[in-house]
Amino acid sequence: MTEQNTQAKLKNLLKQEKIQLWNPPYTQEDNQPGDQHIQELAQRYAPFLNLSVAEVGGALESIRTQAVKRGKGNRTFRETSVATLELLLPRDAKKDPKRKNYMETRLDMPVQQLVDRITEEFSLKHVKLILNGRTLSVDKHLDEQGVKNHSKVMVLKVSDAEQINKEEEEKKNQNESIQRTQKGFQILSERDGSEDPDTTPFLEIADQKGNPLKIPHKEKKALILAMGFHEKGRSLMKRKQYDNALCHLLQADQQFSECGSALLSSVDNYAVLQLDIVWCYRALEALSCLEDGRSRLQRAEECFLKCYGEQQQRLLMIKGNTGREEVLFLRLYLLQSLLSYVEGNDCQARVLLSKVENLYGRLCPDSEKMAQLMALGFTEREARLGLRACGGDLQEAAIHISNRRQNRTKTGKMRMMMCYCWSTTLLF
How far apart (Å, rounded) are the C-alpha atoms in residues 248 and 175? Predict the structure, then answer.
């Protein structure tokens, strides 16, 4: 990550001075570096970056090498229609963590052929290919799905035989897992509540006050599928199975895209999904997917502001507190800070990180108060969320937790009376 930060800063400096490292005198006719001129640049830039001349020289050479390779790839593509793709491989498939991996291919070929080459060359058994946050369909051609020369393609490893032996509960590969999830939630999404409630379960969508919401059938179906995939993805994230989780989260994103913009701007589920996807990028060390990550975080922030209000006043009016939702902003600021740093914008990264630290200080519960609440019979999670919701006030937190327990008990009784009627709450 530090290397990405240094290179981003150097690229900005080079752009300002209109210096092209792939041209003479920085690159000679045989594509070898013009060492003297590179060294002069390193000596000039080192004080700006507070780095040694050797570190800056190494970063400049890396930028130069990439530029030369890109130029060569452009010529090859023009002359032969063979494109060069950058592969973002799983960590355990990289022979050299610092070395970028490329593959040459024609773009008018099915994705399955590229998958077969990748699995063979890098000794992987089952993979999915992701481009700009979308899963590539194996039965379609690369160019049909927006793959271009120099595209960055993320390679996700799905459950292989080795993983199945280690974890007996995961006896099916990822495709089957996704199909199972989709089938289950598709059944739910097609229920309209008109069947006999004593024998047939159905899913009801309600607002924060429990009032059923009228949503067009097509959007309701897509929304239920999206939330199902999202929940499955989140459970996989908790088990740190980020490859598998990301595939489910991207399926959720695809289903959310079937919903109208008015609905998406009214529910925070969609914003939380964007955070989870970028969190997986971070966990998979795929922050080179900057463009997609940046746009997702922007969508998340816009959605939070519409749902909660500029100062979260709408959320306060509905729920009476903002404790749980503030954790979402903490994650948002942390990821934004990380991306700013990778882009070389240290000033913005520091501002965002300061927000993270301040928010974390407010949200981190007092251990003594936690112990007192747990001594009253509350769980650790209840104590933590209660203190956050009540701004650290011990008595208010105890009352808040007790009220939530009573509400859950009432809700449970209502659900028993309704026989299998499942409801999901959205923020409208």
Answer: 10
